[in-house]
Structures are given as structure tokens and as C-alpha cells.
Amino acid sequence: xxxxxxxxxxxGPTTWSLVATRLRALGHDVAVPSxxxxxxxxxxQQVVEAAAAGACDGSGTHVVVGHSGxxxxxxxIAKRISPAPTALVFVDAGVPPxxxxxxxxxxxxxxxxxxxxxxxxxxxxxxxxxDDVMADLVQDPDVxxxxxxxxxxxxxxxxxxxxxxxKGWTRMPxxxxxxxxxxxxxxxxxxERGWPVAVEAGKHLDxxxxxxxxxxxxxxxxxxxxxxxx
Length: 230
What we know:
The protein has helices at about 15-25, 35-40, 45-55, 75-80, 105-115, 135, 140-150, 185-190, 210-225; strands at about 1-5, 30, 60-65, 85-90, 100, 165, 175-180, 195-200. By secondary structure, it is of the alpha/beta class. The protein has one domain: Alpha/Beta hydrolase fold, catalytic domain (Rossmann fold). Strand 1, helix 1 and strand 2 form a beta-alpha-beta unit. Helix 1 (about 15-25) packs across helix 9 (about 210-225). This is Alpha/beta hydrolase family protein.
């Protein structure tokens, strides 16, 4: 089976690195495209194109998994991949509406970002929440340093434009994995759509703290969303 692991544009590919290693050890083909450089340019369209261009090559079942800020982009990324992916998995991520447009950040939070921007550019994501946020989110100091070193500074303009939602995207098998409380509403939205859902209660970056458990949950969700993969 093939997996494309899409990181949030606010962080870097290290966030998926340990899950990718676990999936490969289990015999899966895995791609983790880096979106750091294109995200810093400030256009979601370039992020989508980079993610699709870096998707896992090959044939057979292909699952695209998005974490956090990658969630609103997943349907558009899937649209750009040919042949179309088999399924999408949202991990502690925003779930786009069935139609219309998806905000890249809640409108109320955009007002908060306005106060953080300097000359139109935001500080690193970790600096939005205080000096100790990475120490709280990532246990291992070496892993934490690697993840922190990749954090880009995005233009405020990146969040000003909503993302169009492809028509009929919800017909694709989807699943949802919750890691942290702030995404509870997205978990509920996924459950209301009849998607397989799971909860690995912990922290938003537990991809780097509990990769084996997160990997196991993703595999179980994929098996539930696409039974033929079992």
C-alpha cells in the first residue's frame, strides 16, 4: 500500500518522519513531500501543487493523510493527484465542508494573527502560543529541535484566502483521527458524515511522541474506510 503523508504548512516534514519510518518497516511505500519552501511564499495553490507533485508513486491503494493545517487542503491535493487516491485520512486536522470553500484558519483567529504579523509576515507557529509550546508538545529534545528547525514564517496573506472545495469530494472514502481537544468539532463533523473515526487522546504533535500508536490507528482507520485493503 502507498501512503502520502502531508504535513501542515505551518511545520515541516519531520512531523511525519517517525510515522513514515514505522509504515515503511511494515512494508508500505511512503512519501512525505516537504512544503516548507512553498508555504513560505504564501499561496495555498503552490502548497497543493507541491504536495501532489511529491505524492507516492506506484500502483494500487494510495492513501493521503493530512495533519493539522493540511486538512483544509486535502480535497484539492487529492484532485491534483492522478490517478485519484483511494482514501483520505485527517489527523487532528480541519475538515472542509462538503461544498463551497474552506477557511485556512477560523475567522476569529485570523484577527488574532493580525496582531502577530510584522511587515506582513507571521512569526513561527510555535511562537504564536508562547516560548514553551514545543517543549510541551514534543517530548524528545533531539526530535523537538529537528522539528523546530523546520518551522517556516508564513505571510499573513496565506490565511486570507479560502480554498475552494472540489465538487463531490466527500464521495471519496475518508476517516478521522483525533489527537487533541481543539479538534473535537472536526471529529464530530467526520462522525456525522459516517466516516470511521478514532481517538488517540494526547497532544497535537503526538506523531512525534507516539508514532507506533498513531500508525496503528491510521492503519485501522484505512481498513475500516476501505475494507478491501484488509
